[in-house]
Amino acid sequence: MIDCRPGLGRQFLPREASMRLVVLGVGNILMSDEGIGVHAVTALMDGYDLPDCVEIIDGGTSGMDCLDRIAEADLLLIADCMRSPGKQPGDITRLADDQINAWFKTKISPHQVGLSDVLAACCFHGISPKKVVLIGVQPASFDTSMELTPAIAAVLPRVIDDLLAELAAFGITATAKAA
Amino acid sequence: MSKRITIDPITRIEGHLRIDVEVDNGKVTKAWSSGQMWRGVELILLGRDPRDAWAITQRICGVCTTVHAITSVRAVENALGLEVPVNAQFIRNMIASAHALHDHIVHFYHLSALDFVDVVSALKADPEATSKLAESLSDWPMNSKHMMAQTKEKLATFVGSGQLGPFANGYWGHPAMKLTPEVNLLAVAHYLQALEAQRHASKIVTILGSKSPHIQNLAVGGVANPIATDSQSVLTVERLLAVKEHIDALSEFTRKVYLPDVAAIGAFYADWTKYGKGITNYISSPEFPTDSKGTQFMVPGGHIPDADLAQYKPFTAFGDQYLRDGVEESVKHAWYTYSKPGALHPYQGETTPHYTDFQDDGKYSWLKAPTFYGKRAQVGPLANVLCGLAAGHQPTATYATQMLNTVSTLLGSKVGPEILHSTIGRHAARAIRSGVMAEVLAQNWSMLIENIGKGDHTTFNKPVFPKGEVMGFGMHEAPRGLLSHWTVIKDGKIANYQCVVPSTWNAGPRDENDEIGPYEASLMDNPIADPEQPLEVLRTVHSFDPCLACAVHVHDDEQREIVQVKAL
Q1: Of residues B185, B187, B227, the one with CA closest to residue B85
Q2: What is the domain-level CATH number for residue A132?
Q3: Coil, strand, or helix at residue B325?
Q4: Which one of A31, A64, A125 makes the best mutation probe of the B interface by having the most chain B beta carbons within 10 Å?
Q5: Any CB–CB contact under 8 A between B213 and chain A?
Q6: Residue B369: in which H helix or E strand, if any?
Q7: Is residue B157 in a domain?
Q8: Does some domain include residue A165?
Q9: How far is B215 from chain A (nearest CA, A)?
């Protein structure tokens, strides 16, 4: 097994004193449902007050730019669009840790390449996030549009609930902002 | 007996490129470059407020976010005749040059070096000899024997685990791999150190752009954030001092690691100076304006026909007429239709999709085929460096001379700038340009500090949109080359918007006269040692820094997957 324990590459990056959780939304918001991950983290940012130890990143379709913030996080929580055979549009899939490596190998998400490169680089460097969880949503359409399709927009609240549940497992309480 | 090879990447970042080649007697005889994804951003922009266009266009691509943002505001400013405060120019210049360094370093070490570096061979290297070699090339402090031994150990763990991570699916042991184990180990050590270096560039973009990967500190008319000496929410002197530390670290890596590494690896692959020339009609944007109008630039750009530096003609200002009037796009071989025959100028550009399937002699790409006065043109750092040499730009000449001298010493024979028109030459040009970028970045920092010191804190001029129609274009020398956005604005709303991106210039399909594009031309006559493992094709295409940080599949005629390659 590769030793991907955090801390092996500590000489390269300063270690944070406290817990650090990163919520990363990935996707292209110009291609309708492809942008579900970004829409989800944007809604999370707009709708909830979260403690300082939670960082929310609108990652778009980028890769290496996020290395700094992903490195050595206690939790990397990814929201993304994810195509899996046999799933219906709007189905939500949760993957964690080892399953994610397997997911990268089978190439389901359009962005896994940039992201998998970053995680692989983190691993080689010894600065992997301690836990990685992915919440993936089966898309209905990749048409050119800045709006989600109705089927996917309808599951957005559930995606946000799932993200909040993952944070809650780390003891994070989010308070809904007053409307 | 000719053999057809199709290399079809599966990424969705901008470009999504597929390359087909026909190989006869071990050489490429025909080539097709095909963009496999429709980029419909132009249609999304219609009817929108031009002040919002930059935030939307920076979503086109995950690699080139900031460059589309900057080019978009320049297009709208050009349409309005709006001047930009010099502070805003300096801040934009720093964001652009830091982004360029990030892109160039990541491209070389993390996305393309593995075409030339055999990672597995590095396990046979002697760390002491590696360190000696490295120290003969530069006085970078992280070239010690200890550092090389540590890298080798890390690599052994990785390879021993059977999970190569970023190095999986490489062409290890391919007959076209030529580096000694020591040079391979040196490259792996610097691969890791480059991860650290790119962080500095990323930090600069984040601090100055307020956010990354999508910057927020930008506006039509300047930048969004005011400059102040006493507030946390704006650009403070304290933050600027932090930026300077990152600039210095980035600059040292560029000079002491990136430039010598490209020279050393290039010298081992001197053969590749003979391949990949392709189209030698070059265009490049002048960049880094230092006045509010965009008439004075720190790095020149223009047109070089037929590789002849003596015929260099500069583009002199934003809105340059010679550039503006020369650009057309053909869709004869692209999956679009126009309402009238022939190629169209971007102001009249149309975006009507018309998919036909892949037709060797017909339509085969989502990219249009741009031309400059009817001819194909190559864009990118090579075009930019050649313009610098033609214009007598001192920093370009300095780093080019340094690069060519190091290569000459390693080869034991004198080489000149003519070797730059090649596959390996494009890598050399990118490193040369990085040396220039590091200087530009530091100079803009000084100019900004000096100007703030004079009491000028202006960062924004408010745009005013007239009734009726105005049009303009923005140009930018992006990491992949000349990028232009063209817009027609009617009563304050976008009536037309066209992006002519570097990858369109270089990767575009055959044009109105059925002439092949730069990627296609550069692949002709490339040797192919093993059609099942077309490493040579990847080398030439990757030398352009295509937007394909991706895994690719190689298919044979029956579309059966025969090889899976990690074409980073």
Answers
A1: B227
A2: 3.40.50.1450
A3: coil
A4: A64
A5: yes
A6: strand B369-372
A7: no
A8: yes
A9: 11
Question: CA-to-CA distance for A22 and B24, rounded, in angstroms?
Answer: 52
- Whether ipTM exceeds 0.95: no
Instruction: Report CB contact under 8 Å: A28, B549.
Output: no
Which residues in chain A touch residue B45, judged by CB atoms under 8 angstroms apart? none
Q: How many domains does chain B have?
A: 1
> What tokens were used for B236?
């403070």
Name which of B525, B481, B527 is nearest B506 in CA terms: B481
Residue B138 lies in a domain: no
Tell me if B157 and A2 make a contact (CB, 8 A cut-off).
yes
Minimum distance, in Å, between the CA of residue A39 and any CA atom of chain B: 13
**Residues 6 or more apart whose Cβ sits within 8 Å of residue B276:** B422, B423, B424, B425, B426, B522, B523, B526, B539, B540, B543
Structure token digits, residue A110: 């359009």
pTM summary value: 0.90
Position A49 in a domain: yes
Domain range for A158: 21-169
CATH number at residue B207: 1.10.645.10
Of B41, B62, B192, which has the smallest distance from its Cβ to A114's Cβ?
A: B62
- pLDDT, block means (10 residues), chain B with 568 residues: 70 58 93 78 91 89 81 98 98 97 91 86 96 96 96 86 62 86 96 91 92 87 84 74 96 97 95 96 98 98 98 98 97 94 94 89 92 98 98 98 96 95 98 98 96 93 97 97 96 94 91 97 94 85 69 28 34
Range of the domain at B66: 3-114+195-567
Shortest CA distance to B297 belongs to which of B316, B321, B320?
B316
Residue B377 lies in a domain: yes
Nearest C-alpha in A relative to B16: A110
**A67: contact with B, CB 8 A cutoff:** yes
Counting one residue from A and one from B, how many pairs have CB atoms under 8 Å apart?
101
Count of the separate structural domains present in chain A? 1
Instruction: With respect to residue A177, please indicate whether it lies within any of the assigned structural domains.
Output: no
Q: What is the spatial distance between Cα B32 and Cα A34, in angstroms, rounded to a whole number? A: 28
Please check whether residue B355 lies inside any domain of the structure: yes
- Tell me whether residue A3 is in a domain: no
Q: Enter the tokens of residue B327.
A: 């650009």
